[in-house]
Write a structure and sequence with these properties.
about 140 residues; Jelly Rolls; 8 strands
């Protein structure tokens, strides 16, 4: 069994979903693993990862609106060290999660036709987010 690990950085420009599928696929194509398992991990507590539709931007807008309803700003949170979007961002990150697992075959992720991997930025201001990707297999 072989494995490969790297850290990728992504600049965000505020709240939204940022597709990172191509960057991960590019790295994977050079990792030398034909069959295995890919793990994608977000190293932040105010951003998350998800697999969702990559064809319709309306899906992304709906997801962001839905998350904002579940964890609205100004809801009387005790924690607000970095501003009014701080605690809601932590709650949204709990909902979107910090890691994904994707099977790999023929050196490619086995995502569905309309699936993409997205970094979910839950803060309003720009950030540089680090994502660790690890693949193991043969």
């Amino acid at each position: 069994m072989d494995q490969s690990l790297t850290s990728l950085s992504f600049d965000t420009h505020g709240t939204g979903l940022y597709e990172i599928t191509d960057e991960i696929a590019d790295w994977l194509s050079h990792a030398g693993i034909e069959t295995g398992l890919l793990t994608v991990f977000c190293q932040h507590t105010s951003a998350g990862l998800l697999i969702t539709e990559n064809a319709s931007p309306a899906v992304h807008r709906d997801v962001v609106r839905w998350l904002s309803k579940l964890a609205p700003e100004g809801d009387g949170y005790e924690h607000s060290d970095e501003g009014p979007d701080d605690m809601p961002a932590h709650l949204k990150a709990l909902l979107t999660g910090n890691s994904l697992t994707v099977p790999v075959a023929q050196g490619r992720m086995l995502l569905g036709t309309w699936q993409g991997i997205f970094l979910a930025e839950h803060r309003r201001r720009p950030h540089r987010r680090k994502i660790v990707v690890h693949v193991s297999g043969e």
